[in-house]
Amino acid sequence: MQNFTDLNLDSQANFGSLVDQVAFDLASYLGQYPNKSFAIRILSKETGLNEKTLKRLLNRENKPTYQTLFKLYSIFLEEECFQKLLDKSPEVVRSYLAQYTPEEKKSSTQDEQDLLDLFKKEPLAAEIFVLAGTAPLIKSAIGFRYGQYGLEVIELLLSKNILIQSDKDVYNLSAKVPNLDGEALKFLGEYFVQRFAKVRDVMSENMISFFAEGLNQAGKEAWLEIDTKAFYKKVEIANDPKFKGPLPYFTFTVTDSIIREKS
Question: Left if phi > 0, otherwise alpha if psi is -120 to 50, otherwise beta: which for 197?
């Protein structure tokens, strides 16, 4: 079997788009195997990336994080040394990876996992974390709403640099908070739906919907496109000063196949 390093990525194709480059290189790597599903399964085990993530990258549905890039190209190029990996990577990948050092990559991944572990252990920390993203937290308001336990969680979040004190008895999210990965987003969504989604007779107060149907590839892609546009439109509205207000709202959207992934 031909080694992927023998393919010489730079001479094969260089794309201006990171998504296109990764999809091309991933397809080239998988093309070494007679069975693509088997190849994805092997690559998933080697990189620690979910099979669904790999398929979405292959289909140009996701933009990879730098952790994902490092894991993939370490396998593609059979190179663990960060600097040598940069030298061998296609230009668009090199430019993206060069913004980070190996230490940042490792610490960021660990920070994401530590944050998720904290949320699972202390769900109230997740709730206060999200509230801090909607508006500054006032100590007296937290004490009134959650009691002494809420104030203790505030201190916990301060000690872990998730919150910062911006004024006397006022707290905001720290700029050092890592980006949330898919697992953390799923946890937050499930937690907030379970705790705060309310069944109402008047649908003008909130939105709850569910629908399932058999779709082909084009139908699935159309659904995902609608979801993506709707999400960014909500963000746009939330960032518009004329829509700012004191009431914290959340939105959580999931569209996925009704198929369990094999472990």
Answer: beta
